[in-house]
């Protein structure tokens, strides 16, 4: 089968011919149709510090996908051949206290599809039947391929009650924009999204009704004044991984504000804890999404009017993966989807 592989411990990815995965009794084999390219894949492509420490080579990469079940293991009775599916990219163990209590997303033995175990940038991917999420008929493969990052956005955005609240989102990458669409869907009042990339801010405003703010040019206090906000944002979603953006968020929240952090800084960065203590913020770290409550909620929201289609700006055949990584590196895109 064709697959996109990290073959060598150096920058780059290679499209190569790999053996079709063999499945165990509790696994399913999926014929992949569409895949989303994630920032994580770009880290692996670039072979940065995180990637070289985390990813064993060779490794088939990719973890955002939709396709069709073509084979099921002998012990699988929950999934049928022919079913259109996506899947949770975190494969867990069942040994930890958290997992055994049903808090699957907190399992410390988690392994990442396309990071620690063979991934979905391929014609076929094998995953445990436990991880399979069936796609309703009205969710097509293209949207199915971006449910993984949408799940990050939904899990982060639903961390705190947003009904009637003023929300600050730092970072208008695909996940920041999707979280803005979720905030709008669930009933937030003002949604301000910041970035320093005009292309991304323009896209955010096309996807949903937000106030886009280029913080390289505009002061957030001025924006708040224009919106008639006196005290600050009630809820903050950090979606950039840039420490300066988090610091700016801390300076524009109400006393008692609630902050969820998804963005991953590339290296340890100083944080003024006094800002959190004296302003009595609640801060929550987010990794992945909840198995499988986030999946349920995002599918239900997509079926009740949440529209994130415009976040997908590029659709390319898998063979043109170099172009995909190029536009992502330049930040000149929303979500990039590859066809297999
Ligand atoms: P992305 O890199 O496409 O988006 C980040 C955005 O932040 C970019 O548009 C960038 O221009 C913007 N930015 C840069 N400096 C800024 C500043 N000073 N203020 C505001 N914005 C600024 O990433 P993405 O795919 O949308 O993912 C968002 C973040 O979440 C990334 O850091 C990613 O690594 C992380 N992530 C975390 C998880 C998790 O489970 N915790 C999962 C997926 C992604
Ligand atoms: Zn991803």
UniProtKB/TrEMBL annotation:
Residues 12-338 form the Enoyl reductase (ER) domain. InterPro entries: ADH-like_C (IPR013149), ADH-like_N (IPR013154), ADH_Zn_CS (IPR002328), ER (IPR020843), GroES-like_sf (IPR011032), NAD(P)-bd_dom_sf (IPR036291), Zn_alcohol_dh (IPR050129). Pfam families: ADH_N (PF08240), ADH_zinc_N (PF00107). The lineage of its organism: Bacteria, Pseudomonadati, Pseudomonadota, Alphaproteobacteria, Hyphomicrobiales. Its cofactor is Zn(2+). This is Threonine 3-dehydrogenase. It comes from the Bacteria. One of its GO terms (molecular function) is oxidoreductase activity, acting on the CH-OH group of donors, NAD or NADP as acceptor. Belongs to the zinc-containing alcohol dehydrogenase family. It comes from Bauldia litoralis. PANTHER family: L-THREONINE 3-DEHYDROGENASE. Coiled coil: none annotated. Keywords: Metal-binding, Oxidoreductase, Zinc. Transmembrane segments: none annotated.
């Amino acid at each position: 089968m064709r697959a996109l592989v990290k073959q060598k411990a150096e920058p780059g990815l290679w499209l190569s011919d790999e053996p079709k995965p063999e499945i165990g009794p509790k696994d399913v084999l999926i014929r992949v149709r569409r895949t989303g390219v994630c920032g994580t894949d770009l880290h692996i492509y670039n072979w940065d510090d995180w990637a070289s420490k985390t990813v064993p080579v060779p490794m088939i990469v990719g973890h955002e996908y939709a396709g069709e079940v073509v084979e099921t293991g002998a012990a699988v009775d929950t999934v049928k051949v022919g079913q259109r599916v996506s899947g949770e990219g975190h494969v867990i163990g069942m040994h930890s206290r958290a997992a055994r209590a049903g808090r699957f997303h907190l399992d410390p033995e988690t392994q990442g599809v396309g990071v620690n175990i063979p991934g979905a940038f391929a014609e076929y991917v094998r995953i445990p039947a436990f991880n399979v999420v069936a796609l309703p008929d009205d969710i097509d493969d293209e949207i199915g391929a971006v449910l993984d990052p949408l799940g990050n956005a939904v899990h982060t955005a639903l961390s705190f009650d947003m009904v009637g609240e003023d929300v600050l989102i730092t970072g208008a990458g695909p996940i920041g924009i999707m979280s803005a669409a979720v905030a709008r869907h669930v009933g937030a009042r003002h949604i301000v999204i910041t970035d320093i990339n005009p292309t991304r801010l323009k896209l955010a405003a096309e996807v949903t009704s937000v106030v886009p703010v280029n913080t390289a040019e505009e002061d957030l206090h001025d924006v708040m004044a224009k919106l008639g906000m006196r005290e600050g944002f009630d809820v903050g979603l950090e979606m950039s991984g840039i420490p300066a953006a988090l610091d700016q968020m801390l300076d524009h929240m109400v006393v008692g504000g609630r902050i969820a952090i998804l963005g991953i800084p590339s290296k340890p960065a100083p944080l003024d804890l006094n800002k959190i203590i004296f302003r009595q913020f609640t801060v929550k770290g987010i990794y992945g999404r909840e198995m499988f409550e986030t999946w349920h909620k995002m599918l239900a929201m997509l079926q009740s009017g949440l529209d994130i289609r415009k976040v997908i700006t590029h659709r390319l055949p898998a063979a043109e993966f170099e172009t995909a990584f190029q536009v992502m590196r330049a930040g000149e895109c929303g979500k990039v989807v590859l066809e297999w």
